[in-house]
Amino acid sequence: MGIQLKQGLRQQQNLVMTPQLQQAIKLLQLNHMELAELINQELTENPVLEEAAENEAPEDNLATAAGDETFDPEIQQQTDEASQVQEPKPEEQSLAGKDEVNWDAYLEDYNEGSGSAPSMKETPDETPTYENTLTKTTSLEEHLQWQLSMLNLMENEQRLASLIIAGLNDDGYFEGDLATIAAQSGIELEDAEEVLKMIQLFDPIGIGARNLKECLLIQARLLQPRVPEVETIIEHHMVELEKHNIPAIAKALNIPIEKAAEAQRIIHEFEPRPGHVFTEPDTQYIQPDIFIQKVGEQYVIHMNDDGIPRLRVSNYYKSIVQKENAATAAGKETGGKAKEYVQDKLRAALWLIRSIQNRQKTIFKVTEAILARQRDFFEKGARYLKPMVLKDIAADVGMHESTISRVTTNKYVHTPVGTFELKYFFNSSIASSDGGEAVASSAVKERIKQMITKEDPKRPLSDQQLVDLLAKENVDIARRTVAKYREMLHILPSSKRKRAF
């Protein structure tokens, strides 16, 4: 049989994450202080960027801008994959390709005063006090229990999942006996393995692994695209990997040394201790990313721009580009490494400014949607917090659920009733005994806390008595659930709360 050369045309979709999209997603994850640090770093590294003076930076009206189409990196990625045959717009070509760029048009759009956030100076009295900037670090167990509460599980599965989470060590590894706690929960071992695998997909990825190999394999199997060599090395060649014996790995897998080295590099980027980021016991000081203030009967949302530099393109480099464009229009030869360098830095500067503006708009829109759904909370307090999940807000603002997760994690909002992390407003639901509207789990916790605070120390309320009192308020809840909520509130059982005097 002879060897033949054939030429064919095939269309396929590939997962593409451009550096710009990666930067946009990264910006969404940053809190207020991290964003300020990143901007200061960019000001140091990119000579085209400079900080605008206070009187040169007109403020963006995010209340108007929030009505515009907001950039969602997750949806943008899907759009990029589905539109590979579509002709790109000129401005998109300027960001992705090496073609000549119409910088005059860009510099008109991003003029000297491109502010990154609206000002809070008109309402200085509403800035939170020093005491209100204290926050308690979220523990690993609390972070996992919050994710668990978003799932609709059977009671025995919920109990097993809570026992697994309670059995994790500081590094995030599961040290308990799965067979034992499965029997305690009334679940077959095979089904218990499925519950454990579900927890292992929680954030941070790899949590709940029973050993290092399993932890790394979980992360390897979630790579996009998957790299078979990485999984094979973790499964069968951990000893050689620990000794950095790349030639032996390459020989065993029958692959080039370069490919084995690349697989090793990928593995070294995995997190071997996924739980350690939650073991910091230090008190944290936070700055709210956003403010909600009541003006008359209306609530007004403001982004916090304190400490965040306002960015603009340097006039000096802008004049260089304009001279280059004028020379090109006159038919003169221009270019060289200097011109390419300036254009690359301009691309990076303009994309950063755009990404910061879109980040602010996205946070604004998500907060606006939360305010619309949880208005009773701001009017009447935590008892009136309504059930709400990520999917609800994602549908309201037209974004992907993972984007809402990034926006709400580690972002704080200062309100007339206190300072809260945005994800505080997301709660599972508890059915009402009279068939009415469901109640948020956080509202039930707050009610339990209030009842115990007002109890007689000589006759503290038992968990069953709390169940009965909540039933009178049309909250249908089991005694074991009350016990779980009480433990989450760090409240002792009634026998240990009793005081003789």
Structure description:
This protein has 501 residues and is an alpha+beta fold. Among the domains are: 140-278, no CATH class; 429-497, Homeodomain-like (Arc Repressor Mutant, subunit A, Orthogonal Bundle). Helix content is 50%, strand content 7%. It contains 24 helices and ten strands. The protein has helices at 19-29, 32-45, 62-65, 73-82, 90-96, 103-109, 140-149, 155-166, 178-185, 189-199, 212-220, 228-236, 238-242, 246-253, 257-268, 315-329, 337-373, 375-380, 390-397, 401-408, 441-453, 463-472, 479-488, 494-497; strands spanning 49-51, 134-135, 284-285, 290-295, 298-303, 311-313, 412-415, 418-421, 429-430, 439-440. The strands form four sheets. The protein has a four-stranded mixed sheet, with helices on one face. A two-stranded antiparallel ribbon has the order 1-6. Helix 7 (140-149) packs antiparallel against helix 8 (155-166), helix 8 crosses helix 10 (189-199) and helix 17 crosses helix 19 (390-397). The longest helix is centred in the C-terminal third of the chain and has 37 residues, at 337-373. Residues 57-69, 78-101 and 110-124 have low confidence and may be disordered.
